[in-house]
Amino acid sequence: FPPPFLRRCIRLTIKAPDDVARLTDIVNSHLKEWLQGQQSEVKALVTEFINDSKSKELATDQLLNAVFLTIGRKDGAEKTFAQGEIKELRAMLLEKLQ
Predict the structure, then answer these.
(1) For helices 60-70 and 39-53, what crossing angle results, to 10°?
(2) Counts for the chain of helices (H) and strands (E), in that order
(3) How far is 35 from 28, CA to CA, in rounded Å?
(4) Are 35 and 67 in contact (CB under 8 A)?
(5) What is the pTM of this model?
(6) Is the dihedral of CA 20, 22, 23, 26 positive or negative?
(7) Where are the beta strands (DSSP E) in the chain?
């Protein structure tokens, strides 16, 4: 952004959540109605997200999108993706930020 714009801004640095408990709380607070009885899957994806974020820049909204699209569903028995498709979709959603 140009300097005149930046002079009018208050800059905040917010530390990204980096532990399983905090990220799981964030996911549950946003998507609890979609995640009934699927906490083990959520925890596994959060752990994968934390491990991936050590080697590439990721944002919490990417995790929320990945959870919603690959785990979140009203009916836990209703699966719209095959296991291979879920893995491919998660890889696309958790790409390094550019």
Answers:
(1) 140
(2) 5, 0
(3) 8
(4) yes
(5) 0.76
(6) positive
(7) none
Burial (CB count within 10 angstroms: exposed 0-12, middle 13-18, buried 19+), residue 23: buried
Burial of 40 (0-12, 13-18, 19+ CB in 10 A): exposed
Overall size of the chain counted in residues: 98
pLDDT per residue, tens digit, the chain (98 aa), is 899 999 999 989 988 898 999 999 999 999 988 887 888 999 999 999 999 999 989 999 999 999 998 887 655 566 567 778 888 888 888 888 66
What share of residues in the chain are helix, strand, coil (percent, to 5)? 60, 0, 40
Other beta carbons less than 10 A from residue 68's beta carbon: 16
